[in-house]
Amino acid sequence: GENVEQHPSTLSVQEGDSAVIKCTYSDSASNYFPWYKQELGKRPQLIIDIRSNVGEKKDQRIAVTLNKTAKHFSLHITETQPEDSAVYFCAASGNTGFQKLVFGTGTRLLVSP
Amino acid sequence: GAGVSQSPSNKVTEKGKDVELRCDPISGHTALYWYRQSLGQGLEFLIYFQGNSAPDKSGLPSDRFSAERTGGSVSTLTIQRTQQEDSAVYLCASSPSYSQETQYFGPGTRLLVL
Prior knowledge:
The structure holds two protein chains of two kinds.
Chain A: E1 4-7, E2 10-14, E3 19-25, E4 32-38, E5 45-51, E6 56-59, E7 62-67, E8 72-77, E9 86-92, E10 102-103, E11 107-112
Parallel strand pairs in A: 2-11
Antiparallel strand pairs in A: 1-3, 3-8, 4-5, 4-9, 6-7, 7-8, 9-10, 9-11
Chain B: E1 5-7, E2 10-13, E3 19-24, E4 31-37, E5 44-50, E6 65-69, E7 75-79, E8 88-95, E9 104-105, E10 109-113
Parallel strand pairs in B: 2-10
Antiparallel strand pairs in B: 1-3, 3-7, 4-5, 4-8, 6-7, 8-9, 8-10
């Protein structure tokens, strides 16, 4: 089955810096890759996702890139702000039949003022 | 509209007791998922319901765990003979259908087994 690895487990940056979180997946059939943000004590919420027919997607300060050949995808946050501090999870799944999402282990991002 | 809701928000129980956790998905969502999140850990898939299809139970950690979904809406996760290692946050999520993968999470039930 699918296996998703996520790095780093923790990431500390200064406000205004960029942050990059990387994930690799094992199943070449996976073609949907969402990113969820979970603030302390709150539920995970989708922040951006990408499907395998594109290599990059942007939404304001957040972007995701996908390299299907290498089976890895990354989350990029530019101009980080303290409110970006949270745990970020990547995930991967196929788009036929069962929509099981396999999650990475999470990255705790701390943005210092 | 209303999001995914879960009850209770917190549950403290004694080792060996049974517990039931409830999930109300977003109205109209046909797919429902249960996850477990231990302290500081990632999201562990437990079980998935899609419409009237047989559920995928491949993530249930033992036969003490079971779940049902009545009428294609509300779901109940039951843990029998709870153990201390069952202590975690149990998250439910729903999505519109199998062809739309965005999952909307509930607030979770924090379970503590003493």
